Amino acid sequence: MKLILRSLLKLKRTSKVILAVVVICLLVRLLPYFAPIRAADIAQNQLAMQFSDRNGLPLGTLLTRDQEHTSVVPLNQVSPQFIHAILAAEDGSFYHHGALDMKAIIRASKEAIHAKRIVSGASTITMQLARMLDPVPRTFSGKMSEIWLSWRLVAGMNKDEILSAYINRLPMGGNIYGVEAAAQTYFSIPASELNLAQASLLAAIPNNPTYFNPYQHWERLKQRQKYVLNRMVQEKYISDAMPTAASYAARTSSEKVVFQSRQRGIIAAPHFLFWLANQIPPTPLEKGGLIPPFLRGVRGDQSVIRTTINRPLQQFVEAQVQQVISSLAANNVHDAAALVIDNHTGEVLAYVGSPDYFNEAKLGRNDGVQALRQPGSTLKPFVYELALEKGLIRPNSILADVPAHYAIPGAKLYSPTDYTERFLGPARVRIALANSLNVPAVRVLEKVGVKTFLERLHQLGFEHLNQTPEHYGLGLTLGSGEVSLWELARAYVTMARFGDAIPLVSTFSNSPIPTDAIHRVSTSYTLPNHTIWQLITNILSDNHARATAFGVNSVLNLPFPSAVKTGTSSNFRDTWTVGFTTDYTVATWVGNFNGEPMRQVSGVTGAAPLWNRIMLHLHENQEPADFPPPEGLVQLPVCAISGLRPTPDCTSVVQEYFYPEDKIAYESDNQFNLPPEYDEWLAKQQQSSLVSSNFRILSPHHGDLFLLYPGEAAKQKLEFKLAGNKSALVEWWLNGEKLDTNSANSLFWNLHPGKWTLEARSGEMTDKVSFQVELASIKPMRRGFSISNSQVKGNPP
């Protein structure tokens, strides 16, 4: 009796456990019905957007705004052949099970145990849709999340709704999603017109869109098509009433099917269209976050969007980009971009982001107009403009293009040079900017201040220069930041309008896209002093001023007035040319999207030829007007070397602009004396009119103190060095006594203790310095060093 009671108690406890498990399972299974996902929650609106150029010519149709071709059709507008094909290939018993196919799960488990590896999957169409809506890692927790979402879908939608949502999201290769987008892209027909051969091919792609890419792996796709057709025979979708279902499937698989080129649907300006589509603001529902991200739809509009693009010009620029890149292929150049703006309206006339948008192997989808790259020297005009505006330099100022060194905390000594590693010495502002000299540009930025210059660049619309002034340092004027071609073009449009900034416009006001949505600068503004902008334009359009660096007959020289600036980033990774006439601004970039350096390519050989071709084409029927001269400035003759009123010794006289208030100084001063910062540069120059006009003692410097070490008197020598000597011989006088020498520009003198005055005489020219030699109390650690102004400085042997 006790044994029976014990058994009954044990059975009762077991029953409770079983009942509890059953109740928990039922609750878990019923929970999705408390949080169902309905068809309206994941509805996709019609996404196709049609674009035309400014004259109504079609540019193309995008099926979404995020570079994914997606178009939605109801289930009754899809060919039954495709519906049967996708069901046979992916889930033959879709209409006969719930979210999960338990038979398939058991079968797959047995096969995996037997083969000790996964042989086949058991995912249903509902589970695949869940994965499309919310991609999760293929882990146990990820699979549980996928099942949970599948149950929620089944709780809120019927089978046709689930299938409709599924076929409209199928990955069909590249950036194509959904059967309608695939039918339109590949065959130029609606999904309702797909025949069995086309339908079976399309149904073969989603299993592995990259592996079965129709453009790259045709044979693989044909093999997968045979599998799909065989499954259709097995599932009775290809009727037994046909002559023989299997032979009919075989004939279908051998039927010739032609896939259209991927360019179908986009006639011109693909980068521009995708960029423009992305400017559509999200709907209030999307903004409010009332639905989770993976369930959000995308608002679209079927109206034709009339853009500012000029299609013939766009196609010309696209062709020129491809031609220029082809000609530079041997120099490891693969990518380019170009932008054309109407200066009067700010309208974007042409927008080319890469040589071939549809070449995915060469990163063709990258948009070189919006990509951030180092701008090289293209920012220099703006630092000169700001310095002139603030009165830190004058139009006739002389800037020192000589070696300069800047101590930067926590970094190596900064010594800017040009890529030629040569220095011009004294350079007028015009020459320094026109020839893109680096050292004068850094000196000007030092006067302006990096913080002040950065604020001006922000004002001009360089929104991506968002680091601190300390981050960029003095290299900002040489391109140490990153900007886009779009930002550069916008800033140069402001320059072309002499400081009057306007937004860049991409569509006309009667288009369905709000104009504010596409303006990176939403309001117009005017920068002060039109005269300074006119002067900068005058300099950049001076073909003779830039001849030293670029020659007179470079591709920058057009047969009509144009202002232009080139730029090359470090290690020759980017080349830029940005310029304008009174009518148009053209900005071009040539480089490599992958960051590889080009070989023997600079701004004038990389981006400039493309700029040249576009500019000539724009003005082939009508030349632009001349640029107006700088208002309120006066032109006066100056010596090309000194920038001062010409003297009889001047060998080259040019015209330069002056402020009216500087005319008095011009009349009274024509003595050209270079300060000591030129000494190092002068010492390396050969005989020239510049050196001759600056007769001076370069070594020793006035006030130098030298130490003479005991026992080293015969070994320690000081070089007397002179610049600016016209005659063959120089008289050297030391403390009033003439030294017995026939030396011309230098001699060596044995050190002797005392205070010394050294004088050099050549004809009527003379220069004098004083220095001191003292006995040292210790033996030197190194030979040939002296002390001057409490600093150690080198001394030649």
UniProtKB/TrEMBL annotation:
SUPFAM superfamilies: beta-lactamase/transpeptidase-like, Lysozyme-like. One of its GO terms (biological process) is peptidoglycan biosynthetic process. One of its GO terms (molecular function) is serine-type D-Ala-D-Ala carboxypeptidase activity. It catalyses: [GlcNAc-(1->4)-Mur2Ac(oyl-L-Ala-gamma-D-Glu-L-Lys-D-Ala-D-Ala)](n)-di-trans,octa-cis-undecaprenyl diphosphate + beta-D-GlcNAc-(1->4)-Mur2Ac(oyl-L-Ala-gamma-D-Glu-L-Lys-D-Ala-D-Ala)-di-trans,octa-cis-undecaprenyl diphosphate = [GlcNAc-(1->4)-Mur2Ac(oyl-L-Ala-gamma-D-Glu-L-Lys-D-Ala-D-Ala)](n+1)-di-trans,octa-cis-undecaprenyl diphosphate + di-trans,octa-cis-undecaprenyl diphosphate + H(+); Preferential cleavage: (Ac)2-L-Lys-D-Ala-|-D-Ala. Also transpeptidation of peptidyl-alanyl moieties that are N-acyl substituents of D-alanine. Residues 686-771 form the Penicillin-binding C-terminal domain. The keyword Cell cycle does not apply. One of its GO terms (cellular component) is outer membrane-bounded periplasmic space. Residues 61-232 form the Glycosyl transferase family domain. Residues 337-615 form the Penicillin-binding protein transpeptidase domain. The keyword Glycosyltransferase applies. InterPro entries: Beta-lactam/transpept-like, Glyco_trans_51, Glycosyltr_51/Transpeptidase, Lysozyme-like_dom_sf, PBP_1c, PBP_C, PBP_transglycosylase, PCN-bd_Tpept. Pfam families: BiPBP_C (PF06832), Transgly (PF00912), Transpeptidase (PF00905). Keywords: Carboxypeptidase, Glycosyltransferase, Hydrolase, Multifunctional enzyme, Protease, Transferase. It comes from the Bacteria. PANTHER family: BINDING PROTEIN TRANSPEPTIDASE, PUTATIVE-RELATED, PENICILLIN-BINDING PROTEIN 1C. This is PbpC, penicillin-binding protein 1C.
